[in-house]
Write a structure and sequence with these properties.
Blueprint: E1 5-8, E2 16-24, H1 49-54, E3 64-74, E4 77-84, E5 99-106, E6 113-123, E7 134-146, E8 149-161, E9 170-173
Antiparallel strand pairs: 1-2, 2-3, 3-4, 4-5, 5-6, 6-7, 7-8, 8-9
Length: 174
């Protein structure tokens, strides 16, 4: 597989960046910190359990997909919005719809701390390579640096609607 990502930062739109291709989805400020270059399929060794759940068949890959993302720098942080093909990484998209993800980060409210909120939705119903559900998620997180050591935490609420009344659809992770 060959994957390409194109970035464009127009000079006349200061602080704006456009990204197209394979990219990490902007869901939580820790999504870029998941490993994508290892061969060990254990969520306890490298990746956070919440992100491992979202990447069902690829537990050591970043939470990524092909799509289009706009990032806008703000005086107190940034906001990102993404439209993407689905969560399985193979661009299988049985419902022919698109997922969306939005992330807001604020890095000035508390010194040395970044606060974030994110939302995502992707209907991967009928796609056995993905979660095979209409997935919606919310996450609130923070990252702080104390004496050059970085600490972070989050809470996420997910609804993985598989259209089966016999299964539980809600997942909370932290």
């Amino acid at each position: 597989f060959l994957f390409f990502t194109l970035n464009y930062k127009p000079e006349n739109l200061k602080g704006t960046e456009f990204t197209a291709g394979l990219m990490t989805l902007p869901f939580g400020q820790f999504s870029e910190n998941q490993t994508d270059n290892a061969g060990i399929y254990s969520p306890f060794i490298y990746n956070d359990l919440g992100y491992t759940l979202l990447k069902k068949n690829s537990p050591v890959y970043q939470f990524a997909s092909n799509g289009f993302k706009v990032t806008q720098a703000l005086p107190h942080g940034s906001i990102e919005g993404s439209v993407f093909n689905g969560t399985d990484g193979f661009d299988n998209n049985p419902d022919k719809g698109f997922g969306v993800a939005v992330r807001y980060l604020n890095d000035t409210f508390i010194p040395n701390t970044t606060l974030g909120t994110s939302f995502f939705n992707s209907n991967d119903s009928g796609n056995d390579n993905a979660i095979n559900a209409n997935s919606t998620g919310y996450i609130a997180d923070f990252k702080t640096v104390i004496d050059d050591v970085q600490f972070g935490a989050y809470i996420s609420m997910l609804n993985l609607n598989d259209h089966n009344d016999a299964t539980e659809d809600d997942v909370t992770s932290y």
